[in-house]
Structures are given as structure tokens and as C-alpha cells.
Amino acid sequence: MALNPDQLARFRSYMAEKLPDFRCFACGHDHFETGEIVAPLTILPDGTVPVRGDTNPELQVRCLHCGLMLHFDAHLIGLRS
Ligand SMILES: [Zn+2]
After folding, report:
1. CB atoms within 10 A of CB 2
2. CA atoms of 53 and 6, how far apart (whole Å)
3. Distance 62 CA to ligand 1 centre (A)
């Protein structure tokens, strides 16, 4: 799910408050784009993937210079309840 304008504003506010000097730790550039809110799959010890269960939604953020993908906790940012 891509961010709507309100979510994008919240993410930008979060970054300005918490990480005002944030730069890509791989290449040092500071140009990023947000992607989708995703929920990574959990693989159980027996190798199966549960169909239901708790997930921890993450916001994808991509460095536009080197392509490094970062994931931010969507709950902590305030994008998901
Ligand atoms: Zn980078």
C-alpha cells in the first residue's frame, strides 16, 4: 500500500523530528523515496508460513542514489494503528 498524502506528511514530520540529518549509511546521499507499507512473512520453525497472525507493518524507503532499501516500523511512525 503506497502512502496517501496524509501519511506522507506524517512520515516527513517524523523524519524532521527524529532524524533531521539522516543520510544513507551506504553511500552518504540524502535523497530518498517512500515505497509501500509491507508486512514481512514470518517463517515458522517447521518451515511453514502462517496464514494469519500478528504482523509488523513496515514502510519501505529507498535511497535514490544507491538503491539501498530501508524499512521503518509503520506503527512507530504513526502510519498504522
Ligand atoms: Zn544510498
Report:
1. 10
2. 28
3. 8
Say which DSSP state 56 is in: -
Note the pLDDT tens digit of each residue in 21-77.
Answer: 999 999 999 999 999 999 888 888 998 877 776 678 899 999 999 999 999 999 999
Distance 52 CA to ligand 1 centre (A): 34
- 6 CA from centroid of ligand 1 (Å): 26
Q: Give distance in angstroms: CA of 31 to centre of ligand 1.
A: 8
- Can you tell me whether residue 31 is helix, strand or coil? coil
Domain segments of the chain as ranges: 5-77
Distance 76 CA to ligand 1 centre (A): 23
What backbone phi and psi angles, to 5 degrees, belong to 50?
A: -65, 140
CA of 65 to the centre of ligand 1 (A): 5
**DSSP for residue 53:** S
